[in-house]
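Dear colleagues,

As part of the handover before I leave the project, I'm documenting each prediction I ran so the next person doesn't have to rerun anything. This entry is a single chain, and its sequence is reproduced below.
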Amino acid sequence: MCTLSIPVNIFTFSIAINCCCHSNRVDYAFSLLATTFKRGFVPNVVTYTTLIRGLLSQQKSQEARLFFANLIKFREIQPDVITFTTMIDGLCKTGHTDMALWLFRSMEKCDCEPNTVTYTAIINSLCKRGLVDDALNLHSRMMEKGILPDVWTYSPIIQVLCSLKRWEEVGLLLNQMIHDMKVSPNVHTFTILVDAYSKSGKLDDAKHIIQIMNERGENPDIVTYNTLIHAYCSQGQMDGALDVLNTIKSKKIMPDCYTYNILIDAYCREQKLDIAMDLYRKMASEGLSPTVVTHNILLHGLCWLGKPMEALTFFYKIQGLGHKPDMVTYRTLLGGLCKNHYVDKALSLFRTIECNGLIPESNTYNIIIRGCLQSKKYDGACKLVDKMVDCGFSSDAATTSVLRHLLLSKAQDPTLVALYQKCLH
């Protein structure tokens, strides 16, 4: 456009700056800002607000605060409610709630009235910090000023009240929300309630909430149903969990990996590995790719039931299919192998960890060291302790306890004495 002498103005530049910010290239956005000055344009409040939002979206909160402060200091702009709210929301999301509150109070000095979004950002941040009473006071204040809360204002307060089991206040707030303020709960709000009731063992209440959702035309999504499935599984009511799964499918809602992970984990805990494996295979038939969490659950189930060699076979099989293990995978297998006296297999597996681009951490070293000690492979344990110390790790209480117990029965063993002193050091 510039080369062809097609006229551009500050609005053209603002659109381009906004595009750069959304593309995570704030450096380009500031280059464009410099160009606006060179061309004699005066950036407006929208341009500057876009740049602040861009900095915040890249977790550059300090730079955003400095930029905002300089804009006010040098009177480049008169910040409007959107500018203030953008800054406040960014501060809240990066954990700077106290600074956000200070800026919130500064708005009035600038004759800029906070709106619903501004209040909601502060309330949400207070709730995340567990300061629900402060959030409730701010909620009352906004209503006194005639600023109407929306569903996103109510939801975080309801969530934290539920987590504190302040059920009476939950009921009062819901009543105010629905009947007084005519604010309809959305799927997110209902899911909060389903989750809270489920975790408190109130399954009937959770099911009642889903019934209300359906009556109000707010269709539960997979997150809502996963919450209910988890509740059934945690109480060992597997038939109920499967009923919910069938309900999901009947409503043409696709279960996700988390749905199957919950069920597979529950069946492993119920020692019904055949059913867990059937569900695992069903995932593939429904076009879902199992995650590393799925595999870790099954490996843990096999090891817990005393089948570490089957777990090892399964591990090599999924590796062959291109699935990458993580450190939880290795800890699970090493623990299962050592517990069932396959320490040589565990040592061989331990040596492959770094080949997969992973670095053993303290817990992993301690698991394999305990396995060596319990199998009387003291020299091997000694070498592993040296390597662990070189990596900056130390023995944990469980490892020290095993050593102490061995010393009581074999007090004269010089290798054990030296090993114990190393661990204590």
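The chain has a mean pLDDT of 90. Residues 214 and 220 are 7 Å apart (CA to CA).

All the best with the project,
I.
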